[in-house]
Amino acid sequence: MLDVRRAKTVVLAVLASLLALALVFYAEEALAAAKEGIRVFGVIVLPSLFPFFVLSEVLLGLGVVHFMGVIFEPLMRPVFNVPGVGAFALSMGLAAGYPMDAVITTKFRRKKLCTRIEAERLLAFTNTADPLFIFGAVAVGMFGRPALGPLLAIAHYLSSFTLGFFFRFYGCEETPTEETPPTYKGMLRRAFAALLRGRAEDGRPLGQLLGEAVRESVATLFTIGGFIVFFSVLVRLLSAIGLLDFLASPAARVLGLCGLSSSLVPAFFQGLLEIDLGTAAG
Predict the structure, then answer these.
(1) Helix, strand, coil proportions of the chain in percent (round to 5)?
(2) pLDDT band for position 265 (50/70/90)?
(3) Whole-structure pTM over 0.85, yes or no?
């Protein structure tokens, strides 16, 4: 075990050193890729996600998520075996797309609104694209066929919900749950009680809540932006040294089996590492 760990450390050190050398020898390509990554982040990712990040934090602090948890528990628990607050992650994920659901699920775990297993089940079906992306960027921008939007949306969301249904059984042997029939009696009263309790537990004044929501959202978004820029540079360097050309032929065959053009190979590799880069390249 120790030898494997040492070998892994050596391999990672060598790869990082080679990447640093590639940055030196292909500085011009790396700079252009970094600018492209910053453009994708600044023009597409930041304006589309920032309002939702702030709003999700404010709604969580005001207790609205706790309210939704009670209202949607009779639906989310029997169908997906997750707490009712999962409906909030699902709705915000549908509205904003990737990676809104992951951010919200992380907040749920920090506030102990769900268990680890429930968070993993939640991520299985809430990690979706938003409708604007499907109808605009994919149907119109990529395929040039607006009429294809509804079909793509149905296939995308139906597959996600189907996966979520099957994942309801994931981890049951580790954390068995008692199946209790949903109770609707006094639901609205309990929902408002949960809202007030959630607000009292948070306790931050609205100004402080909004300020911290903006600060945390900016920090999270710039982390995402850092990954976008890094992977943009990484893909460009791999292309410059010829590694992507070596992998292009088998990748083109795979895309051909799916009825896609071989010209999408660069976008395919970028999408494997970072979905926003793949979308922009496509």
Answers:
(1) 80, 0, 20
(2) confident
(3) no
